[in-house]
Amino acid sequence: MFLFQMALTDSWLQQQPSQKDAADQNFDYMFKLLIIGNSSVGKTSFLFRYADDSFTSAFVSTVGIDFKVKTVFRNDKRIKLQIWDTAGQERYRTITTAYYRGAMGFLLMYDITNQDSFTAVQDWATQIKTYSWDNAQVILVGNKCDLEDDRLVPTEDGQRLAEELGFQFFEASAKDNINVKQVFERLVDVICEKMNESMEGDMNLMTNHRNQGIKDSPSESQGGCAC
């Protein structure tokens, strides 16, 4: 739980969103999420589809980093998502990796019609391991599944790589709005599950310490008795 709390704090220490929604403090949790992957795999389109339910093919490459804020309800909790859209070009890599710290979840994206973007997944996974918290959750997303006729990366290859990396896997399409909401919901749910596990672990640890203290107290009292 300690790492989750630190991640939560770090997300606030970074640049804050300026939208009106960001000023609303009425939420139970705030999760910082990053979308990463090669340039032109559809990261910005994916974010706009989820946050605004809009799509346009006229997007240009993201310069540096951008963000959206969206509030969702999961398991009776109001969760504010701070979603960062990162640039995929190598020249922005130093900028984007600075935002990995404090991120609680990643969407690692490739384009199913672009073999190079799939090959680069291993490098992106290494970036996550190097610069993020150990407990950050990752979902591998094969985007543009609407372009089936142009597919170069078989679904089975994506599934196999996700298993090797220990990530969950989805194929999706920002254009046709396939699995976009489901991907984000799953990532939020996994983060919540890990938080609950951490809290339960902390509670068990506290209980064990308390029980140990109770067990030790009589013997100390008995040892001090001279009657």
From TrEMBL:
UniProt cofactor(s): Mg(2+)
InterPro entries listed in its UniProt record: P-loop_NTPase, Rab3, Small_GTP-bd, Small_GTPase, Small_GTPase_Rab
Catalytic activity annotation: GTP + H2O = GDP + phosphate + H(+)
Gene Ontology molecular function: G protein activity; GTP binding; metal ion binding
Keyword Protein transport belongs to the record: yes
A GO term from the CC aspect: secretory granule
Biological process annotations from GO: exocytosis; intracellular protein transport; regulation of exocytosis
Subcellular location: Cell membrane
Keyword vocabulary terms for this entry: Acetylation, Cell membrane, Exocytosis, GTP-binding, Hydrolase, Lipoprotein, Magnesium, Membrane, Metal-binding, Methylation, Nucleotide-binding, Phosphoprotein, Prenylation, Protein transport, Transport
Protein name: Ras-related protein Rab-3
Organism: Sphaeramia orbicularis
